[in-house]
Amino acid sequence: MRTFATLADTLVAGYDVVDLLQTLVDACRDLLDASAAGILLANDAGYLEVIASTSEASHLVEMMQLGAEAGPCIESFRTGQSVSVPDVADAPAAWVRFRDSALEQGFRSVYALPLRLRETTIGTLNLFRDTVGVMDESDEIAARAFADVATIGILHERSLRESNLVQEQLQLALGSRTIIEQAKGIVAFTKDISVDQAFGLIREHARVQQAGLGAVAARIVDRSLAL
Fold it and tell me: Would you say the pTM of this structure is higher than 0.70?
């Protein structure tokens, strides 16, 4: 409960999503039946990258399976389902690079959970254990909850980033519109024409000069351009 309270405190504007995910993997290692944990996220091109890890060992295993494009973490991401490997030594032949690397680092079993919202999978939470066997059911439930928190945190950060970008674009658009209105008034007054005619002149000048309407209006307002 204290861990969830800590994680909830990070879900505020300005928080660092990497800090959130590092807190998650550390909690998985410390509180669950796991020797190490790591999180993989899909980049804009759809390729998985390590974003948080509790040890260089688990990081190495994840990088190995990424390079080979085979292993429980990759399988979980592709299918959107949890993948349990109770005995790494018995991993499928296609996962040989993952198997050898994991065994070399002392990991004997692995549990991978998708970071998924509805039909969209954005990454995986991966738990490494130094003993053979399935993970305790209560730990699986807790791990699933941690994975859900990670998903919420990541999507929340992306939503904030996109919202801020839209807001910035809106403010720029509003500011540009104000300048255009001022330019229309200046041209209408100096040429003794209607505001609509003034706007037509501004638009025509912008078209001929292949310049932005807002840029032309700004030059009219600062008196560096007279139509």
Answer: no
